[in-house]
Specification:
The complex is a heterotrimer.
Chain A (H helix, E strand, L loop, with lengths): L1 H8 L2 H25 L7 H25 L7 H16 L6 H24 L5 H19 L10 H8 L13 H18 L1 H11 L1 H6 L4 H27 L9 H11 L11 H20 L7 H19 L14 H11 L1
Helix pairs in contact in A: 1-9, 2-13, 2-14, 3-8, 3-11, 3-12, 3-13, 4-5, 4-6, 4-11, 5-6, 5-11, 7-11, 8-9, 9-11, 12-13
Chain B lengths: L1 H13 L2 H22 L7 H26 L7 H16 L6 H24 L5 H19 L9 H8 L1 E2 L2 E2 H19 L1 H11 L1 H6 L5 H26 L11 H11 L11 H20 L4 H32 L22 H9 L1
Antiparallel strand pairs in B: 1-2
Chain C lengths: L1 H23 L26 H10 L20 E2 L13 E6 L5 H20 L4 E6 L4 H14 L4 E5 L3 H13 L4 E4 L10 E5 L2 H15 L5 E6 L5 H15 L4 E7 L4 H14 L4 E4 L5 H10 L6 E3 L4 H10 L3 E2 L10 H10 L4 E2 L1 E4 L6 H10 L21 H4 L2
Parallel strand pairs in C: 2-3, 2-4, 4-5, 5-6, 6-13, 7-8, 7-9, 9-10, 10-11
Antiparallel strand pairs in C: 1-12
Classes of the chains: A mainly alpha, B mainly alpha, C alpha/beta.
Chain lengths: ~350, ~350, ~400
C-alpha cells in the first residue's frame, strides 16, 4: 500500500497527465489571442494580463494545497471579499495603517484557515460543508459589520502591490508587483511540495489510511493545508483590492473559479495527484480564456457557455489520458472514521 | 446479489442518523418557538405554519434530487440553472393556455431529464469529475439563458398557478406534492433494485462492480432524477411567479440543497443516508428562515447564523456517525464491509476498460 | 448501454418537440419599435424597448414637478390624485406598517434602506405611524412571495410596502396583498398590475440611460468611441437604461465599441476596460450603474491614456474622483430619496389623505455645476454612499449613514 503512494509522491504520473494537457491548452489560447491581437505579446499588454491573473494564481495555489490533501475550500471567495472590506474599513485611507492592517489580515486569514481545518479534521465535518458554512458566516458577518456595503478606503501604500510595480523596464514597461508575488509564491509552493510536509500532504490526499499508518498526523497536515489556503486568499485579497479598489461585489464566485483553475490543471479532486505548476497553469488558462473571449468580441452572455464546454472537455480529456480511477470515486476521499480508528491503532 | 441482501440488512444502520435529524428538527422548532415567544409572538400561528411549509417545498424538491445524486457519491451543482431554465420552458410552452399545461410539464421535465442524462453520461462515460461536469453544465445553461432570454418571459395559465399558490388547510399543495415525492423516492430507494444499487455504488463502486452491478447506470439514473426534481422546482417557481424568470439561477439553490441533504444526515461521500433525513433537513432550514423572519433578524446576521448552525449540526452527526461506525468495526456483521471502513481510494484501481467489460458480461 | 441509448433517443425526440415548441412560442414585440437603422446592435432590443414609455419619460424630464422643491421626495410629476379615505384608520399612531424588501445587496439599496428607517423614526415621532416591520428576500423572488404572503396571513399589517425584486414575477403576490384589503404601496421596480394604492418611482430607466447617453453625445466629437459597461442582463430597470442609450446612440455619430456585463465587480471592470484600451482608443464610457466606475477610470490611468468622458452615477466614490481629476462627466441619478416616499405615502393613506396613483418622483442628473455642492453636503459620508439620498433633515443625520 505504501509503495504506490511513495511512487506517486514524486508525481511522475501527474506530470504526464494534467500538466501536459493544460500547457497545450494554454499555448493554444495564446496562439489564438496572438492571431486576433498581435500586440498582445508586446510587453505592456502581457504585463497587464499578468497583473490581472496574479490573484487567481495565488488563490489556485492555496486551493491546490487543500484539494491535493483531499478536501475543498469554498470559503475563499467570501474570504477575499471580507479581507478587502476589512482592509478598507480599518485603513480608511490612512497610509500609516497599511502595514499593521496587512498584518492583521494575515492573522485573520490564519484564524479562518485554522477554524476550517480543525472543524473539518477534528469535528469531522465534510470540508464542503465546513467551508460553505464559513463562506456564509464571512459573507454575513462582514456585511453586518459594515452595515451592508463596504466603508472606508484603501491607502495608496496598500494598493501598490496589486496595481503598481517597478517602471521603466525595457520591453516590458512595468513589472507588476503582483507578478513578482505570484511567482515567489509559486516557487515557494513548489519547494513546499518537495519538503517532507509536501510529501505528507500528497500522501494524505492519496490515501489517508496509508498515510496515517506511515506516521503522518493527518489532521495536522490537512489543517495546515486549510491555513495555507486562507493565507493565500488573504494575499489574493491584497492583490485584488490593490488592483481594483473596493467594490461591494469583490470576491464573489472566486471559489468556483479557483477550483476550476486547479482542476483544469489536471489536479484531481479527491486528492493525491497533481502539481503546483499544473494548478498555476490552470489559473493562467482560465484567465487567458476570459481574455480570449474578450479579444474575440464574444458576447458577454455566451461566455459562460464557452467556458463550461471548455472546462468539461479539458477535464474529460485529462481523465481519458492520465487517470485510471473509476469515475465515481475521485470526488472526495476523506473518511473521518478511518482516521480515528487508525489513530487509536497507532497509539 | 449477496450485496443486495446485505444492503437491505444494512439499511437500518445506514438511515440511522435519521432519528438524530428529526431530534434536531424538534430542537430547532422548540428553541425557535421559545425565541419567538420571548418576543411576545407565537411561532405556530396558522400564518407562520403556512410560511414554514411554503418555504420547505421548493428546497424540498431540489434536496430530494440532490440526495439521490449524493447517495451515488456524485454531486449536482447545475440544479439552480436547470430550475431557472425550467421556469422559462414551462412558461413559454404553456403560453398562458390551459390546454398546454400538460405539454408544458412534459417539455420541462423532458428537457430537465435530458440535461440530467448528459450530466450522468459526462460523469460516467467521459469520467469528468461531477463537481466540474455539473458546474460546467450550469455555466453552459447560464450562457444559453442570458443569450436567449432577457429577463422574465412566457406566461403560466391561472389553472396551473394553483400548484404554487393554493393550499389545503395550512398545507400548501406544493408541500403535499413534495412530501408525496419524498415518499415515492423513499420507496424507490428501499424497494427497487436500482435503489439498492445507488446505495451500493455510493458505498463503494468497486465492491458494487464486483457484485455484478453496473456502476454507471445508477449514477446516470440518479442524475436524470435529480435534474427532473430541479425541473419540478422550476415548475413550482413558474407557477408562483406566473411567468418564467432566468435570474432564478442567482439564488444559490444548489448549495442550499446540498446543505439540506447533509443536514439531513446523508453522507457526502455516498452510500449512507436517505430522503427521510433530507426532508427533516429541509424543514430545519425552513424553520430557521421562518423564525428569522418572525424575529426580523438582520439579513446579514441570518447568513452568519445559517452557516454556524449547518456546521454545528453536521459536526454533531459526525460524532454520532463516528461512534456507530466504530462499533460496527469491532463487531463486523459479516458480508461486505460497511462502506465507511473501505478505504475510499485503493491506490491501485483496475484500469478502466476491464471492469466495464466485466460489468457488461454479467 | 442499451438503456442509455434508448434514453438518448427519447431525449433527442424530446428536444425536437421542444425546439418546435419554443420557436413558435410568440415573443411578440408589442409594437413596431424599429429603432435606429444603422447597424443591428444599435437598435434597442424590442423586448425591452417601449417607444411610448420612452417618449413619456423623455418628456417627464422637462416637466416641473408639483410640491416643495426642497423636498423632492414629496414631489410628484403630473400626479393623478386618488382618494384613500376608505383606508383611513382611527388610530394611525398605532398603525403597523410592513415592508417587504427585495434585498439590501448593493450599496444603493443599503443607503436607501437606512434612509427609510430614519424616515420611519421621524413618522413614528410625529405619530403618523406606530411601528414598522421589514423582511428581506435577499434577491430571491420566491422568498419575497413567501414574505408578502406571511405579512398578509399574519393580519398584523395596516399597510404593506413592497419593493419587488422582479417586476413580472412578483405581480401575483402583490395582487394577493391588494386583495387582502390592506393598502399596498409599491416602489422602485413596479409590477404588472395597478391594484396598489400608489406606485412610487423616479422617472425611470429610459430617462437614466438617455441622460447618460445624451451627455456623451454632446461632449464627444463625432466618430468618437464609446464603451458600455452593464451590470447584468434581464433586470428591467437596467435593461431600460441600455435600451434608451441604444436609441440615443443610434441617432448619433458615436461609434459604440460594444457592451460588457461586469456584475459591478471592480476587478472585472478594470480588466475589461484595460483590454479595450489595448486594442484602441476609448473616448467615452457609458455605465448602467456607477458601481466600479472608479476602477474603470483607473484602467485609463494605468494604461497612460487620457480620461474618457464618462457617465457614472451619484455614488460618492465616483463623484470624488470626478472632482479630483477634473473629469468631463455626468452622474445620472436613480433618485435614492425615493426610499423616503413609501413610508410617507403609507402615513398619508392611513390618514385618508389623497396620494398620486402613480407617484413619479423627479430624477435630475448631477452635472458639473452642482458637483461641489453635493460633495460638500456629503463630505462625511462613506465612498459607497449616494449623493441624492435626501436624508439631511431626518433624525440620526449624519451618524446613521456614516456609521451604518
Amino acid at each position: 500500500m505504501t509503495e504506490p503512494t511513495t511512487a506517486r509522491v514524486r508525481f511522475p504520473t501527474a506530470l504526464r497527465g494534467g500538466t501536459g494537457t493544460v500547457s497545450v491548452l494554454l499555448v493554444l489560447i495564446f496562439v489564438v489571442i496572438a492571431t486576433q491581437n498581435p500586440s498582445f505579446f508586446e510587453g505592456p499588454p502581457l504585463m497587464a494580463f499578468a497583473k490581472k491573473a496574479a490573484p487567481l494564481v495565488v488563490l489556485a495555489i492555496g486551493q491546490y494545497l487543500v484539494i491535493v490533501s483531499g478536501e475543498f475550500d469554498l470559503s475563499v471567495g467570501s474570504l477575499v471579499g471580507a479581507q478587502v472590506v476589512i482592509a478598507a474599513r480599518l485603513i480608511d485611507g490612512d497610509e500609516a495603517m497599511t502595514y499593521p492592517v496587512i498584518g492583521l489580515m494575515l492573522l485573520f486569514g490564519l484564524l479562518v484557515g485554522l477554524v476550517n481545518g480543525l472543524v473539518t479534521t477534528l469535528l469531522r465535518v465534510p470540508s464542503i460543508i465546513t467551508t460553505l458554512g464559513t463562506m456564509l458566516i464571512l459573507f454575513g458577518a462582514v456585511r453586518y459589520w459594515t452595515g451592508g456595503a463596504p466603508t472606508g478606503a484603501l491607502s495608496e501604500g496598500f494598493r501598490v502591490f496589486g496595481r503598481h510595480g517597478p517602471d521603466g523596464v525595457p520591453v516590458l514597461g512595468q513589472i507588476p508587483w503582483a507578478l513578482v508575488i505570484a511567482a515567489l509564491l509559486t516557487v515557494g509552493a513548489i519547494l513546499l511540495m518537495r519538503s517532507p510536509y509536501g510529501r505528507s500532504l500528497m500522501a494524505t490526499g492519496d490515501n489517508d489510511t496509508a498515510a496515517a499508518f506511515s506516521g503522518v498526523r493527518v489532521w495536522r497536515v490537512r489543517t495546515l493545508a486549510f491555513v495555507g489556503s486562507s493565507l493565500m486568499a488573504t494575499v489574493a485579497a491584497i492583490l485584488i483590492g490593490g488592483f481594483a479598489g473596493v467594490t461591494a461585489q469583490v470576491g464573489e464566485g472566486l471559489e468556483f473559479t479557483a477550483i476550476t483553475a486547479v482542476v483544469l490543471g489536471g489536479v484531481v479532486l479527491g486528492g493525491g495527484r497533481g502539481t503546483v505548476v499544473a494548478a498555476v497553469l490552470g489559473a493562467l488558462t482560465v484567465e487567458a480564456l476570459f481574455t480570449l473571449f474578450n479579444q474575440l468580441y464574444l458576447p458577454s452572455t455566451i461566455q459562460p457557455t464557452a467556458q463550461g464546454l471548455i472546462i468539461i472537455a479539458a477535464v474529460a480529456y485529462v481523465s481519458r489520458r492520465g487517470d485510471p480511477r473509476p469515475p465515481t470515486r475521485p470526488r472526495r476521499r476523506p473518511d473521518p472514521p478511518n482516521e480515528r480508528q487508525l489513530d487509536s491503532s497507532r497509539r | 446479489m449477496t450485496r443486495v441482501v446485505s444492503a437491505s440488512r444494512n439499511l437500518r444502520a445506514r438511515t440511522g442518523t435519521t432519528g438524530l435529524v428529526y431530534l434536531a428538527l424538534v430542537i430547532v422548532l422548540v428553541v425557535g418557538a421559545l425565541f419567538v415567544a420571548l418576543r411576545g409572538g407565537n411561532l405556530f400561528t396558522a400564518a407562520n405554519t403556512v410560511d414554514l411549509f411554503t418555504r420547505s417545498s421548493l428546497l424540498g424538491f431540489l434536496a430530494i434530487g440532490q440526495t439521490l445524486v449524493i447517495l451515488c457519491r456524485s454531486l449536482d451543482l447545475s440544479v439552480g440553472y436547470v430550475t431557472a431554465l425550467s421556469t422559462m420552458v414551462a412558461a413559454i410552452t404553456m403560453a398562458g393556455d390551459p390546454s398546454r399545461i400538460v405539454l408544458g410539464i412534459g417539455a420541462t421535465l423532458g428537457l430537465a431529464a435530458l440535461i440530467g442524462l448528459v450530466n450522468g453520461l459526462v460523469i460516467t462515460r467521459l469520467r469528468v469529475n461531477p463537481f466540474i461536469a455539473t458546474l460546467g453544465m450550469g455555466l453552459i445553461i447560464k450562457g444559453y439563458l442570458d443569450t436567449r432570454f432577457q429577463g422574465p418571459g412566457g406566461s403560466i395559465p391561472a389553472e396551473f398557478q394553483t400548484f404554487g399558490l393554493s393550499r389545503v388547510g395550512v398545507l400548501p399543495v406544493s408541500t403535499l406534492v413534495m412530501l408525496a415525492l419524498a415518499v415515492a423516492v423513499i420507496l424507490f430507494l428501499r424497494r427497487t433494485r436500482t435503489g439498492f444499487h445507488m446505495y451500493a455504488v455510493g458505498g463503494d463502486a468497486e465492491v458494487a462492480r464486483l457484485s455484478g452491478i453496473r456502476p454507471e447506470l445508477p449514477v446516470i439514473i440518479a442524475h436524470v432524477l435529480c435534474s427532473m426534481t430541479a425541473g419540478v422546482a422550476g415548475l413550482l417557481l413558474a407557477s408562483r411567479f406566473g411567468t418564467g424568470n432566468t435570474l432564478v439561477y442567482g439564488n444559490g439553490y444548489e448549495l442550499e440543497a446540498i446543505a439540506a441533504v447533509v443536514l439531513g444526515g446523508t453522507y457526502l461521500l455516498g452510500g449512507r443516508g436517505g430522503v427521510a433525513g433530507t426532508v427533516a433537513g429541509v424543514f430545519i432550514l425552513a424553520t430557521l428562515d421562518t423564525v428569522f423572519n418572525t424575529l426580523s433578524v438582520d439579513p446579514f446576521v441570518k447568513d452568519v447564523l445559517r452557516g454556524a448552525i449547518v456546521i454545528a449540526a453536521v459536526a454533531i452527526y459526525a460524532r454520532g456517525q463516528h461512534a456507530r461506525t466504530a462499533v460496527r468495526l469491532r463487531f463486523p456483521s459479516g458480508g461486505a464491509p460497511p462502506p465507511a471502513t473501505v478505504p475510499p481510494d485503493p491506490p491501485t484501481s483496475p484500469p478502466e476498460a476491464e471492469p466495464a467489460a466485466r460489468g457488461g458480461t454479467r | 448501454m442499451r438503456a442509455s441509448r434508448v434514453l438518448l433517443a427519447g431525449a433527442a425526440g424530446l428536444t425536437l418537440v421542444l425546439s418546435a415548441c419554443t420557436t413558435d412560442a410568440p415573443e411578440n414585440p408589442d409594437e413596431g419599435t424599429a429603432g435606429g437603422e444603422n447597424g443591428g446592435e444599435m437598435s434597442p432590443d424590442a423586448e425591452w424597448f417601449d417607444q411610448a414609455e420612452f417618449g413619456t419619460q423623455m418628456a417627464q424630464r422637462d416637466i416641473e414637478p408639483e410640491g416643495p422643491a426642497d423636498e423632492p421626495w414629496t414631489q410628484a410629476i403630473e400626479p393623478e390624485w386618488v382618494d384613500t379615505s376608505d383606508f383611513a384608520i382611527d388610530d394611525p399612531q398605532d398603525a403597523h406598517v410592513c415592508f417587504s424588501n427585495a434585498s439590501v445587496s448593493n450599496p444603493w439599496r443599503v443607503t436607501g434602506f437606512i434612509t427609510m428607517e430614519q424616515q420611519v423614526e421621524a413618522l413614528v415621532d410625529e405619530g403618523r405611524i406606530g411601528s414598522f416591520d421589514s423582511s428581506d428576500a435577499a434577491d430571491d423572488d420566491n422568498q419575497q412571495i413567501s414574505d408578502i404572503q406571511a405579512f398578509v396571513d399574519s393580519g398584523n399589517c395596516d399597510a404593506i410596502i413592497i419593493s419587488p425584486s422582479t417586476t413580472a414575477t412578483l405581480t401575483p403576490a402583490v395582487e394577493t396583498a391588494c386583495e387582502s384589503g390592506v393598502p399596498v404601496v409599491v416602489f422602485d421596480r413596479g409590477v404588472n398590475s395597478d391594484c396598489m394604492v400608489t406606485f412610487i418611482h423616479p422617472i425611470g430607466g429610459y430617462a437614466y440611460g438617455a441622460d447618460a447617453a445624451d451627455f456623451l453625445v454632446e461632449s464627444l466629437e463625432p466618430g468618437s468611441t464609446v464603451l458600455a459597461l452593464r451590470i447584468l442582463p434581464g433586470v428591467d430597470v437596467l435593461e431600460h437604461r441600455w435600451a434608451a442609450a441604444q436609441e440615443v446612440f443610434a441617432d448619433s455619430e458615436l461609434e459604440v465599441l460594444g457592451f460588457e456585463f461586469t456584475e459591478g465587480d471592480g476587478a472585472q471592470i478594470k480588466d475589461l476596460v484595460s483590454q479595450h484600451l489595448q486594442r484602441g482608443e476609448v473616448n467615452g464610457i457609458w455605465m448602467d450603474a456607477g458601481d466600479g466606475a472608479v476602477a474603470g477610470l483607473e484602467a485609463f490611468e494605468d494604461a497612460g491614456q487620457p480620461y474618457p468622458v464618462i457617465a457614472g452615477e451619484d455614488e460618492l466614490s465616483f463623484m470624488r474622483k470626478w472632482d479630483e481629476e477634473g473629469l468631463t462627466a455626468i452622474a445620472p441619478v436613480y433618485s435614492n430619496f425615493q426610499w423616503r416616499t413609501p413610508v410617507i405615502a403609507a402615513g398619508m393613506i392611513l390618514a385618508g389623505e389623497e396620494v398620486p396613483a402613480e407617484w413619479v418622483l423627479p430624477q435630475d442628473p448631477i452635472r458639473e455645476d452642482e458637483l461641489d455642492d453635493y460633495l460638500d453636503r456629503n463630505s462625511d459620508m462613506p465612498s459607497l454612499h449616494y449623493a441624492k439620498f435626501g436624508g439631511e433633515d431626518l433624525p440620526g443625520f449624519p451618524e446613521a449613514w456614516v456609521d451604518r
